[in-house]
Amino acid sequence: MRIGILTGGGDCPGLNAVIRAVVRTSVKEYSSEVIGFLEGWRGPLENMVMPLTMQSTGGLIHRGGTILRTSRTNPFKVDRGPERILDNMQKNRLDALIAVGGEDTCGVANRLYKEHNLNVVCIPKTIDNDLSATDFTFGFDTAVNIVTEALDRLHTTAEAHNRVHVCEVMGRDAGWLACYGGIAGGADFILVPEKPIEAQKVVQAIKTRHSRGRDYSIVVVAEGAKFAEGEAGVEAGETPEQVDSFGHKRLGGIGDRLAKLIESQTGFETRATILGHIQRGGSPTAFDRVLATRFGVKAAQLVNEKKFGRMVSLQGSTLTDVAIEEATGTLKTLDMELYGVAEVFFG
Ligand code: F6P
To answer: What average pLDDT score do residues 253-278 get?
Structure first.
């Protein structure tokens, strides 16, 4: 068989490990050939390709980013987008495509499968862990570890200066990263998109903590968290250039806003740190390397069995596959039972 692979949406650690696993399994186990499409869905739209061999994808397991690069291109927003993708699949004599992505990339793959009969298999990735029908996406564990390390560092400086530190982490619609990172990093309050921010509760929790003799606090806030009274965090994405082709506004600013509010209402000096893309860069953790490798091997197997329209998935510790549409229908928001565990440590 001849197989194409692309990586779409925001990058995350583990993408290169997936590419390596897909190529090795396809070439070594099934004598197939693999080519890479560059920059997400832009690759098959514009016919931007590169050959992939066992040699060229060797030694990649530890490398962050993606050798295929990525973009947030939406082919359904482009004139004759789906037709151009099918043409380029044919030009490259491809039998199937593997799309590695989150909700947007897999959503496009599902439409191409359903509406245009594209032979496609998906692999779930995102640091947000908000894709349904899989317990974990790769990239998430690495990001959690980065947040945890950042909180450990903020803790020591917060304690030295008697300050409150607000740490803004990624998470547009889901608070998985804020919650896991916050629990691991011993946060004194965690704010997530699933639960509107009740400013007075945060202020009270910090005051209570300080009244017990603690002179510093750590607050974690997900970039997509919003104030209860319907007041959104400062959104930078007001101009068309700051809204991507899937309609997502660029977020950021809630951490600063919250820090000002905490300082004015508690009287404690408060600083904000935005972790931003540091959370998406660098080497994957061992967990993500293994998960990405398992996903890549399984996706190559599915293609070989011609099981199209499927996404590889981790359920418990078992690797399985599900219909792509099961993953893309609704976002997997934070398990509020887990948030309940975090709440025990607030204040
Ligand atoms: O990939 C998802 C994500 O990490 C979100 O948490 C965040 O809102 C977004 O990416 C930022 O994307 P970009 O790098 O395109 O601004």
So the answer is: 97
Note whether 74 and 89 are same-domain residues: yes
* Closest atom of ligand 1 to CA, residue 248: 8
Coil vs helix vs strand at 231: coil
Strand runs (DSSP E) across the chain, as ranges? Answer: 2-7, 33-37, 49-52, 96-101, 120-124, 164-169, 189-191, 217-222, 270-274, 310-315, 318-323
Ligand 1 in contact with 126 (CB < 6 A)? yes
Ligand 1 centre distance from Cα of residue 118 (Å): 27
The C-alpha angle with vertex 22 and arms to 17 and 28, in degrees rounded to 5, equals 120
In tens, the pLDDT along 198-251 reads 999 999 999 999 999 999 999 999 999 999 865 544 444 445 557 899 989 888
34-73 pLDDT, tens digit per residue, is 999 999 999 999 999 999 999 999 999 999 999 999 999 9
% of the chain beyond a pLDDT of 70 = 96
- Print the domain residue range for 161: 141-280
What mean pLDDT, rounded, does the chain reach?
Answer: 95
Q: Is 67 in contact with 16 (CB distance < 8 Å)?
A: yes
Residue of 106, 130, 170 to test ligand 1 pocket, by largest number of atoms within 8 Å of CB: 170
CB distance 40 to ligand 1 below 6 Å: no
Is 259 a member of any domain?
Answer: yes
Residue 134 has a pLDDT of 98
Residue 125: what residue type? K
For atom 14 of ligand 1, the residue with the nearest CA is: 10
Kindly give the number of the ligand 1 atom that is closest to the alpha carbon of 72.
15
What's the CATH number where 37 sits? 3.40.50.450
Q: Which residue is catalytic, options 11, 87, 104, 128?
A: 128
Atom 9 in ligand 1: residue holding the nearest Cα: 10
CA of 327 from ligand 1 middle (Å) equals: 19
Quick one: 163 and 211 in the same domain?
Answer: yes
Active-site residue, 141 included: no
Tell me, using a 6 A CB cutoff, whether residue 172 lines ligand 1: yes
What is the rounded CA–CA span in Å between residue 106 and residue 285? 24
